[in-house]
Batch of 2 targets.
Target 1
Amino acid sequence: MGCQCQVLVLSGSAGLAEQGERYVRELEDRWTRFSADSELSRFNARAGGWVSISPELSVLLWRGLAGFRLSGGLFNPFLGSQIREVGYDRDFADLDTASVKEAIGPDQSGARAQGMVQQPLQFRRNRRVARIAGGLEFDSGGIGKGLGAALVVEHLIRAGAAGAMVSLGGDVGVGGSWPDTGWRIGIEDPTGRNDQPMNVVLRDGAICTSGILKRRWRETSGSVSHHILDPATGKSLAGSDVVAASAIARQGWRAEVFTKMAIIGGSRVANEIVRRNSGVALLVWDRSGSVSTIQ
C-alpha cells in the first residue's frame, strides 16, 4: 500500500489483528501496480482480452467502474499508463519528492470536458471474468486504500471481531461495535498548518482523504508532478480552488471517489456531492490553506 497501516480490533479471538494484517498484505499483493507479478499488472497486460480474476480483484475493478460512472468521469481509474508517464512508475518512497510549497499556485481551473470510453471495463460470469478495453490500464491508487480498509473491517467482523478500525495511509474504515462514544479519528492538516486540528468520531462507515500536496515528485525534466490527474488531459491536475479533501461516507470506495471529485471539480462540485448524497460530509482545503466543512 506504500503507507502506514493500522488494524485495531475489539474483542474476538486472539490473533485477529494479525489476521487483518495478513489480509492487507494479500490485497496489496493482488492490487499493486508496482509489481509486474501482481494480479492487477497481469490483468492490465492482457488489455482487450477476457481474463479470469479473483474475488479481490473483481471487487476492486467493479467499484472502480462504479466510481467512474458515479462521477461522470471526474474519478477515472483507467489512467494507469498516464500516471506512469508523469513519473509515478514506482513506489513513492523511491521518487525524488517535492515540497508542499511548490503545490499551491493560482487557480487555473475552469470547465473541463471529460473524454470517456463508453465501455472501459466489462464483466461476465458473476464478475469473475473481466476485460479492460485495449490501450487502458486500471490504476488501483485512487480507490484501493479506502476500499481495502472497508474490506479488511468486513473480514474481521466475519472472523468474530466485535468491532474493528482499519487505517491504510489515513483512509479509515470502521464497523461493528465501537469504544466509548465511537472511534476518534484525527485528520492531519494536508497544508501543514498546526492551528486547525480536526477530529471526527465514527461509529460506522469510512473517512478518506486525498490531495495534491503530499504525493509530489520531480520528473527528470525538473518539473513537479502529483498523483491526481486531470481526466481531460491525463496530466497532473493544473489547478483547482480545492487542493485537498476529506470525505465521510458509509462506504470506503464512495468516500475515495468523492474526495477525487471535490479536488478535480472544485468547490462547486464539492457542494453538489453533499447536496445529492445524504449522509455524506466533506472537509475541503483551498489554496490559502483554509478548511471548510460541507454537510
Target 2
Amino acid sequence: MVLQLENISKSYFQKLALEDVSLTLMEGEIFGLLGPNGAGKTSIIRIINKIIEADKGNVRFKKELMLDKHLIHFGYLPEERGLYRTITVKDHAYFLGRLRGMSNSDIKIQLNYWLEKFKIMDWANKRIEELSKGMAQKVQFICAVLHQPQILILDEPFSGFDPINVELIQDELKSMKANGKTIMLSSHNMKSVEEICDRVALIHNSKKILEGSVSKIRDDRKNGTYAIRFRGNMIGFVNALWTGFELIDKELLSENRFIAYVKMRNENNFQDLLKTLLGQVEIEAAWEVTPSMQEIFIEMVQEN
C-alpha cells in the first residue's frame, strides 16, 4: 500500500463534495478514478496534492500521515492546464524542475530524455503559445514526470490528444507501472480505462459507490448473454434454437451474415448452444458478452 485515503469528507460553503470516501492505491498499479462531472474526483486529487485540505479524514503516504515533505514523491497533471504561455518549453521545464528540488544538470538529462523519446527535440526553444493544445498537453505531461515521481496523478490526461498520442501516453504509463510506479488517473475515456487500469473506483454524488479490479467488475455484471457471429439464414438460426435458447437481439453485418445475441433457457449451457447450431449455420465466432466499463459506468450512475 503506497497511498491511502481514510474517510475523507469535504464541503464547499455547506455544499457536500465528498462524504466519507476511502481509497487505497497499491504500489505498481494504475488506478482509475471515475465519475460524472461534479462527482468529487477533482476534490480528491486536490486533497491528495495538499492544494486543499479535507474537512475530515486522513491521507497516508506509505502509512505516514501525508505531509508537505512527501509531495516531492508525487507528479501531478491537473485538468486545468497551467503552462505559462510566454516562456519556452525548456525554461518551463527548468522552472518546474527546480520547484521539485532537481538540479539543473538533472533537469537537462531528464528533459533531453523525454524530448528525444517523444521525438520533439525541436520544441525546446518554442514558446508555449506557439504550441497546439495537444503539443502543450504533451509538454505538461513531461513536466509532471520530469522528477521521476513515485506516484503520478493525472486529471483527464487524454483530453486534447489524438488517438496516436493517447496510445503513446498509455504506453508510457504502462512502462512506468512496470517499473513500480503508482498511477492514479481521472478520465472520461472509458476505453483507455479498460485498457490500462488495474482497479477503479466510481464516485457519484460525493460518495464512492464502487471499487474493484476492472476484470472482476466486468465479470460480476455479465448476464449470461452469448454472441454468435455466423453466415446463413436467420430464420434457420432461430428455428435451431427452438425452446432451449432465447434470441435477445441481432445485427445484420452483410447479406446472410449476422451477429445474434442469445440467452440460455433451462439447464442449457454454451456447449449445448454450439452443438445445436453446428450444421445449421456457418459459425465464424462465439463469445460470452461482457459489459464495457462505459456501460457499467452509465448503469451505476443511473441506479444511484
